[in-house]
Amino acid sequence: MIRVVFHVSSFDLSLAAIRKSRLWGGGVGCGLNSPSINPFALRRTEFENLIRVCGSRNVKDLHYFQQLFWMGHSAAVWDCRAATEITKDWNGIDQIVLRNPRGALARVSLHGAQVTSWRNEHGEELLFTSSKAIFKAPKAIRGGIPICFPQFGTCGSLELHGFARNRMWFIDDNPPPLPANDSIGKSFVDLLLKSSEEDMKCWPHSFEFRLRVSLTTDGDLNLISRVRNINGKPFSFSFAYHTYLLVSDISEIRIEGLETLDYLDNLLQKERFTEQGDAITFESEVNPLESLHLDRQKFSTSLIFPWQVDRVYLSSPNIIAVLDHERKRTFVMRKEGLPDVAVWNPWDKKAKSMVDMGDEEYKQMLCVDGAIFEKPVILKPGEEWTGRLQLSVVASSFCSERLGLDRDGL
C-alpha cells in the first residue's frame, strides 16, 4: 500500500474541495457501499479541525472518514477499504467482518444482527459460542451477543427474548447520523430491522430498529441500538444485549459493580432481594442446600452460586467489571440507556437439558447483559430510544478500584 503524507495548513477546507483533489478515491468504501478516501496521514489536531469543518457542512459526510486514523502523533494510516467486508458463513448467511489496524476482529451476522465473534489483537476469542449452536434461521444462536427485542426474558406474550434475534436484518446504507465520535477511528456496520407482516401478527406495532456495531482502534466493541416508533400509537418494550462472555472457568470469575443492589430472581418467581456482599463469585460444587434440605429462598442473598443463576439487577451503575483471575484479565462493560443488568449461567443440570449447549460448556461462559427489564421503555409516535454498550478488556484481574474505572460509564 502506498502511504501518502498530507498536512493541512489551512482549515478553511470544504468536503467538496477534498473530493476534487487526488486525496479522494472511488470504488468500494470503508463503510459499506460508500466512496473511499485514499490513505493519508494528518496530525491529530489538524484532522480534528478538518472533521469539524466538514461536519459543519454535512454530518453524514463523516461516514467517509470512519477508518482513516489510528490515533496518535503522526499515526500510521491503515487501509480502510479492507477494514470492513461482507462474507458468508457456512450456511450461506451474510456476515460482516470488522477489523482494526492492530489485528482485532468482530463478526456480525445478518441473522439476528448478532455479533458472533470478537477477537483481540492476539487472535484470542472473547465471546462464548456453544459448540452445539444452531446457525440456521429462525433458530437463535447460542452465544455471541443476541439482541433481545421487543421482549427480554419471559415477561410478556412473545417468544423468549422476543423475535429480533431470529429475524434476518439488512445493511443500512443511509442511516440517520450519529455523533462524530461514534464513527471516527472505528470500523463499523449499520443494520436495520423493520416490522414485518409476521411480526405484526404477534406484536402489532410499526417500528424501525437500527443497530450500529463498531470496533475501535483499541479493540473495544461498541453497539448502539436505536428504536423508533413509526406507529400511530405508543408502544412499550423491554430489551437486552444478551452478552455471552468467554471465561477460563466459572469458579475463577468475580463480578463487581452489582453489590448492594436490589435484584429479581427469575428462579424464584421474580421475587425481589438485595445483595449483601462486595462482589459476586461462583463455585463448582454441589448445591449444599439441596443435600441439607434447607429453604434456598432464605439463602438467596448469598454471593456465591453453586447452582444456576438467573437474576436481573435493578438500577445498576453504568459500568460493570467481570474479573477472570485465571486469565488475568477483566471485561469492562460500559452502558447508557440500560438501567438493569442480567446475570445468567445455566449450571450443569440446565446445560444438560439444552440441545444447543454442551454438558460442560457452562464452565466457560457467563452472560452479563445490559438490559431494560423492570420498567419497559414507552415510546410515543415519532419518538426514538437509544441504548449503548461498550465492551473492553483490561489486562488485569485486580479489583475494579485498582483499575481506576469511572463509574459514570460512557
From TrEMBL:
InterPro entries: Aldose_1/G6P_1-epimerase, G6P_1-epimerase, Gal_mutarotase_sf_dom, GH-type_carb-bd. It holds the Pfam family Aldose_epim. GO terms for cellular component: cytoplasm. Keywords: Isomerase. Its EC number is 5.1.3.15. CDD domains: D-hex-6-P-epi_like. It catalyses: alpha-D-glucose 6-phosphate = beta-D-glucose 6-phosphate. GO terms for molecular function: carbohydrate binding; glucose-6-phosphate 1-epimerase activity. One of its GO terms (biological process) is carbohydrate metabolic process. PANTHER family: APOSPORY-ASSOCIATED PROTEIN C-RELATED (PTHR11122), GLUCOSE-6-PHOSPHATE 1-EPIMERASE (PTHR11122:SF10). Belongs to the glucose-6-phosphate 1-epimerase family. This is glucose-6-phosphate 1-epimerase. The lineage of its organism: Eukaryota, Viridiplantae, Streptophyta, Embryophyta, Tracheophyta.
